[in-house]
Amino acid sequence: MYLEHLSLTDFRSYAQVDLKLGPGVTVLVGSNGIGKTNLMEAIGYLATLSSHRVSTDAPLLRFGTERALVRAKLVRGEQSTVVELEINAGRANRGRINRGNPVRARDILGICQTVLFAPEDLALVKGDPSNRRRFMDELLVSLLPAHAATRSDYDRVLKQRNALLKSARTGKFTAAHEATLDVWDQHMARAGAELLHARLELVELLLPHLKRAYALLTDGSKEASAVYRSTIQGALDDDGGPSERPAQGPDGVEDLRGLSVEQLTERYVQAFAASRRKELERGISLVGPHRDELELVLGQAPAKGYASHGETWSMCLSLRLASYYVMLDDTRTGGSAPILILDDVFAELDVQRRRKLAAIVAGAEQVLVTAAVDADIPEELAGRRVKVVPGGIDGEG
Q: In total, how many domains does the chain have?
């Protein structure tokens, strides 16, 4: 897959900009703060319906405007698709495919597929677990857009259940409260099990690619790995678990891999029952995928808190490369490669890591790179140059 044309209207700093692209490597060069990242952010948003820089849509609209428009022409094999996304202030975003009737924004997921590297990726290692959960869920949606509904359903049920727990905490917990909570437990158990099952399968797909990518980027003295930690693995320890516990992994924690959605649903129901007293005391859901963790490991130690700056960058890059290879392997894409976006990454790396990363990604179908100066770009990524100036594109080489 490659992006042939990008058009933005009232997105971030751009009133209007058009960018022509093609297969291979394209480097966008311009001073810091000039708007290069805004272009990459728009492409990433089209792919995931979320920004790697902000958590809400409001900053994406050019100041003083009520809507922004992102339009892209994507080519996959012999087929081209025009996809548009209208980002609105105060109302639902809308999509459009091949200039057809408006659809829900969620309906355009899967048309544009990207893997985006950015300095913000350091939060994948250094940040709190929500960053790693978001990484997994966005990749799940890229692989199978229907997972957007899976996550949306879980968030809706979680919100309702938390509201009930909060109201029970502030007042008297009646029999009516308990009956209603039982119903929400069932809904959340099923929704949580579907999300957990998808994440566990994803981690299994990621692991071999993560190990290989980290070895390629470094001297190979440490092995990269990841372990999914679910709240249901320890939720029943204090209060007694079910009669048949899942097998234990090498670290003594029960192994949830291989369990069906139905089995995981039952585990959640049991965990909710065991945690009810604590949840009522705190007025919040303590068990569920929203509190799970993807623990990143280097050698024998957690990457967070133990990895050096260079190791942290290598782990972040390896996670993104692993997601690229998982998407490349996915049969649903028909072998179509996602667009690789490297947004101001090379300036953060030493010369050795620059060259190794460039050598790995140079053969991708389309690579979009941003840099403040040409000197930041390794020779291995020789390609077309585009100069970005305030408000638009100055020239193309």
A: 2
